[in-house]
Predict the 3D structure of the following.
Amino acid sequence: MVALADPTRRAIFEALPAAPRSVGELAERVGVTSSAVSQHLRVLREARLVRMRPDGNRRLYHLDPRGLADVRDYVERYWPSALAAYAAAIDEAWSSEP
């Protein structure tokens, strides 16, 4: 997923499972400006990884289950080949032992 390739964006994303957070909370937690967080959140929203809900005069961001399902589906496409490669590596390691 391109949206999670950036380390700051990934840190913002990883800060959200515990609880919805405001831009200010995320900026403090990640150590960047609120403006930078807002830009990263826009990318994450466009990728359907986070959603925003108004809470008084604040906007709270939380994970978007629709996008998470897309990510899970994407990763699961590679799971069988990853398991096969792992099994082959174990077989090779066992067969090369004296």
